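Internal ticket #5521
Category: modeling
Description: The requester needs a full-assembly model to guide mutagenesis choices. All entity lines are attached below as received. Residue total reported by intake: 703.
Assigned to: D.W.
Attached entities:
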Amino acid sequence: MDIFDGIATGFATAATAQNLLYVFIGVLIGTVIGVLPGLGPSATIALLLPLTYTLEPATAVIMLAGIYYGSMYGGTITSVLLRLPGEAASVVTSIDGYEMARQGRAGAALGISAVGSFIGGMVAVVGLMLLAPTLADIAVGVGPPEFVALAVLGLLLVTYLGTRHPFKSLAMAGIGLLLATVGQDPITGATRFTFGQLSLIDGFDFVAIAMGLFGVGEILHAIEQDQAVKALTSKVRNIWPTRQDFRDSAAPIARGSVLGFLIGVLPGGGGVVSSLASYGAEKKLSRNGRHEFGKGAIEGVAGPETANNASSTSAFVPLLTLGLPSNVVLALIFGALTIQGITPGPTLIDDHPDIFWGVIASMVIGNVILLILNVPLVGVFVQLLRVRPGILGAFALLITMAGVYSINNDLNDMWVVLGFGVLGWLMKKTGFEPGPLVLAFVLGPILEGSFRQSMLLSDGSLGIFVQRPVAGVVFGLIAVFLVWSTVMALRGRLTSGAEMIEHAAADEAELEALRSPAAPEQDRADADGGGDARATTRTTTRSRHEEED
Amino acid sequence: MSQHAYRFGALAILALGAAAALGAVQLGLGGLSAPGSGLWPFITALVIIFCGLVLIVEDTPDDYETWTRRSGKVGIAFVALGVFIPVLQLLGIILAAFLLLTFWIRFLSREPWRLTLVLAVAGSVGLYLVFGQFLEVPFPVGIIGRQTGLEFGL
């Protein structure tokens, strides 16, 4: 099937009444949770996993993908209006976006974000269409050692870039890998770590872990946070940017699209890294620009917002072509597919062209819907901020419980999810991010299988990981990365998300704008490249607001 | 001692890693050329142990959140969810959801009664319509449903 046939198949799939409905539901939920406090895209997707059982596989992924990129649009709204990043990828937007709002240009900031996100999303979809089939062709020839190398690289980057304490995250990733081994050994059939429990022979249930650790854990954590609601001060007028705004933003949007796409394709890529990179790049380039960054430069809104949406689209490339999820949100979507009995991988494009092309085509439709939703309806979404976290939490948990029950019609499943929920809450409270655990749990079987196959191929020689060119290069990168990070750690200069934000900030005043009394909290918010821990960011930023008021 | 309480995290990681390593050895490691069932779990256990050791040395208390009264609230919320499950069996989904929402919105979030009742009624009926009717989830039938034969979520 060539690309044009594929695109035709895709639109034929995406344009059915049911799929149109679900892409609409997905982007709408995405925008809403992007705005709402206390729920990020990964928690939401985890909570909705049981509902995808009843859907066609393509429909399920179309909806979940819509939630992911929809949240990128929604997160901007609170960043600009309240300087509360609705999700982590919008943290940098709050620097110049909020300044613009204070100058009465909130409408222009939101408008250019929507337009930029749309263009970024479209560029990434086109890139996905052109790149993914080629990559899938190449990926068919990729052997087990390469899979080991790529999976290890992805895990390391997610644990490292996402969190402020890499070793805590790495420990969580290790536990995720370990949990994935519970049950029957896929090769010998021996039972492992089941402690005689029959129910564990098939291993831990992915949905129970994801819903508990992310969904319930995050909601419990949000309940604990301050529940004060910040009143909206700036009015949204003139949502359509002026001609001058477009002229100023054109280049940042163009650069943001390309940068976001490229970063999204990499393992560990996705929202946060791309928006930080775009902000940094725009600031460097703007030295002679008309606007000063940190003082309401529209370039500092347009670039990062474009980049985060482009990267959340292109992050589907490794999942759809290699079967490797590059961040936690995509790990959840991987899980949704395996629930349906479909293992994403190089053959997905041939075995299930409706899923592959249908999801891509739905992104075009979803982005158009988002542009239509966002420009005129910003005012409606802003009203959602009046929903208090306590009420939101009550409803979200109730839906979770009903959803868990609906999987097997079994009350015991509710207890399991509740148990993992408390664990997730305790992990959040102690700084152990659940994100890497869930990602590792998904990657675990792939990693173990590929590792053992590699060992059989090479007759037990670890040299196979360095002698094959692709695996060798990736492991070389991993080695360089490990040495570099160890040296930095020893020198006490571990670069975490927070510091990347500090690097992105131009001066002290700008840094202050990003920081809060509990400054280190800030970077927890990017654990998944999609912002599962944004409740923390919100709260800290919020408490600073209250001090100002 | 309490200022060292945070070190419990690192010790827990270390203990888990050690237990996993022991379990993996019992499963049989095999060799690299013929990996046994325990080899891969053993490797992951080594990663966990390594992290545990590093954390003992360099973990700091500042990313451990303190326990506040609000943490107690989370405990109550959790107990409420635990109570919800048997209540669901006894009274059916609509009443159980109504009670949970009422308790939660009124007593945990401290919203006014009127808002609480509106939300609780709308939420519990809405939940039943979406899950019970639209998605056809067979929730357990409660006492009222059994007595009256009205099995619509009661």
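Resolution: model delivered.
Comment from assignee: Chain B has a mean pLDDT of 85.
Ticket closed.
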